[in-house]
Amino acid sequence: MRVLHIVTGLASGGAERQLQLLLRNLPAHQQCEVVALTNPGAVAAALRGDGVTVHHLGMRGNRDLGALPRLVRLVRSGRYDLVHTHLYRAQLYGRLAARLAGVRVVVSTEHSLHAGVIEGRPVTRGVKGLYLAAERLGSTTVAVSRQVAQTLHSWGVPPARVELIPNGIDTARYRRPAADRAATRRRLRAELGLPEGSWVVGGVGRLVPGKRFEVLLEALAALDPAARLVLVGAGPERAALEHRAAELGVRERLVLTGERDDVPDLLTALDVLAAPSTAETFGLGILEGLAAGLPVRHSACPALDELPPGAAPQARRIPSEGAAYAAALRDLRHLNDHNADPLPHPPAVGHYDIARVAADLGALYDRLARA
After folding, report:
1. How many CA atoms, within 13 angstroms, populate the side-chain half-sphere of residue 299?
2. Contacts of 190 (CB under 8 A, 6+ apart)
3. How far apart are the C-alpha atoms of 126 and 359, rounded to whole Å?
4. CA distance 64 to 8
5. From CA 80, how far away is CA 98, in angstroms rounded?
6. Cβ atoms of 150 and 177 closer than 8 Å
7. Between 42-49 and 14-25, two packed helices, what is the crossing angle to 10 degrees?
8. What is the DSSP letter of 73?
């Protein structure tokens, strides 16, 4: 089976990294290629390193209608059995191009959708209308959580057209011998300039307003001076976060790593992962923290909400407020001060293992191809 994945871009975002993981784990008989409409960034290079063919369409913007015939020609020439689209722009252009090229099976994954927000942007009447028009050109929409599926249903997408397949994590990347983990922790703490004996809170994600990382700065100001905050990610809020940290008097205790491709390693440098976002469609970073053996304090995680209460005992939900995080982190430190040993993997980590998720997606491909 020949499969073409169409994605808006291939910078180092959550959906893009998820695509890379899936392609590494899909069944061998499903031969995949990828086309980025624009911005073939770090993930494009990583995919090529994995041996995946990556095409770049060179689209100049949302209204570059000349990209559509180029995409149709690419799809038609590749003789693909199935097209799978990811992210809003690729969903609009990709579904239409696949149909014009004569592809019978068209799948799309909805990675980030709330009732009034899609991929961090407000949903206008026009955005919603285009989305629903494009959805009807597809065969199936994959929702990464029940929350996303419920939003699709509320928009009028029939339940029979929605398949729930969650995101996955590469749990094997987080399993390492104790000595290796300890050495990685020491190396990265030194690299990040973290003082000996510091207690390190971490946050992972794009530096955008929705992640609410300013809450962690407020919490940091209320913790003792040995506490440090490491934020892993890049984004437009970096300057605002630096300014707020200076206002709170904690700028010297804040480490901003920028975009990194070694997040599993960086997590070993932390003592706790904190996620104050109140609007998540899945909560992949929280699961990665659990896979790394960290205690987690969070404010929203649909991935955990969909599992039994005992699936992740080391994860606790708390209000997204500076005082609440300060209290929770202070209590956690008293319980587990400077214990660098990782916690065991909870059941939630195994449930979302990428091998299991990719097998479910591969089975969907096969089922749709036979229909």
Report:
1. 19
2. none
3. 36
4. 13
5. 9
6. no
7. 10
8. H
Region of residue 293 (phi > 0: left; psi between -120 and 50: alpha; otherwise: beta): left
What CA–CA distance (Å, rounded) separates 11 from 42? Answer: 5
**Residue 327: burial class (beta carbons within 10 Å; 0-12, 13-18, 19+):** middle
Distance in angstroms (rounded) separating the CA atoms of residues 78 and 224: 59
Q: Which of 279, 258, 10 is nearest to 121 (CA)?
A: 279
Question: Count of residues for the chain?
Answer: 371
Alpha-carbon gap, residue 350 to 371, rounded angstroms: 31
> Whole-angstrom Cα distance, residue 206 to residue 208?
6
Distance from C-alpha of 254 to C-alpha of 234, rounded to nearest angstrom: 14
Q: What is the pLDDT of residue 13?
A: 79
Please give the radius of gyration of the chain, using alpha carbons only, rounded to the nearest integer.
Answer: 21
Tokens, residue 191: 């690299």
Burial class (CB in 10 A: 0-12, 13-18, 19+), 51: exposed
In this prediction the pTM is 0.89
Residues of the chain with pLDDT under 50: none
pLDDT at 339: 62
